[in-house]
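User: I'm writing a tutorial on reading structure tokens. Could you give me a worked example: one chain, its sequence, then its tokens, then a sentence or two explaining what the tokens reveal?
Assistant: Sure. Here is the example chain.
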Amino acid sequence: MKSAKSSGPEQQPDDPQPDDPQPDDPQPDDPQPDDPQPDDPQPDDPQPDDPGPRSRRAAHALIVVACVGAVVAGALVHFRPTKASPSHSPAAHPPGLSHSAPPNFAAPMPVGVPGKWNLILNSDFDQPLNTSVWRPGWFGAGLTGPVNSNETACYSSSNVTFPGDGTVHLNLTATPSHCQGKRRPFTGAILTTNPADGRRSGGFTFRYGVVEAKVYVPGTGGLIANWPTVMTIGQVWPKDGEDDILEGLSGIDCLHFHSPGYAPGGNLGGCDPGVTPGWHTIASNWEPGSVTWYYDGIEVDKITKGVTSAPMYLVLLYTASSKGRSVATADSMRVAYVRVWKAASGSASRGGAHVP
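And here are its predicted structure tokens:
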């Protein structure tokens, strides 16, 4: 590319001028690159105060490590766990609790049930059966039962199993059994906390409060199979009451309260064909003069008459019925947990619990 024009004659690159020093003619006062000067330190000659490239790199590395360490230490101080406040400290182990809550975790509360509650029984069936609270069999061990004369199964203790899935299985099998002088085509299972079933000690009863259970309801084709039941019951029936929180009748889920004047006919409560087989969290809030039922955290029914006040114990039952339409097939009712709460201080009903 040409430079801009000047007013004088244009100099040609190939005609060097006498007064213009040429690149190949070194000047006496101009130090050349190949002639080191005595006062100009060379890159390869370390100076006395210069630690050299390796030392400098090591020093830089030490500085980086120190900075990183300071940052990490600051982070550890910033995220150090603080001491748990008293409100999150685990409470004393309530009587009858078969499985305590993990440390520093608040006790579970009933699902969807308003109010303030104190946990008095926490039976998590992800571990061996707590026989100080629960016992298989109906007023005895081995082959017992049935509770109702319309059942077509006796109860076997061996039909209560823990297969390792975090639940207890109450199995109904097509194995003939013989109890109360009668042969029956099936064998079912039962668990109770009845302290008066012949055991020497243990069991659990309560008076007023919330019962909650997480239950797998067996069935097929939208119908509940056989006669699964979760209930509470008093020692003298029907005087002391019976609360059927879940009961499969003729393939449909029902909830009832039995008491004098409402047993066996005139049941308090009702049935809901919309409750299908599968996992459900069921609950009953028993208070003076009322019982309110909850399914999966939603209130489904309430009664305000015929409510008894005597202490009751817990029953888990899976059997078969000779009455009505039923899905008679071998299956299992599974229960993950059963919990009971009493109202906290200042709530409407206090009640109590009794663990012999």
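What the tokens reveal: Residues 117-344 form a domain with the Jelly Rolls fold (CATH 2.60.120.200). The two ends are 110 Å apart (CA to CA).
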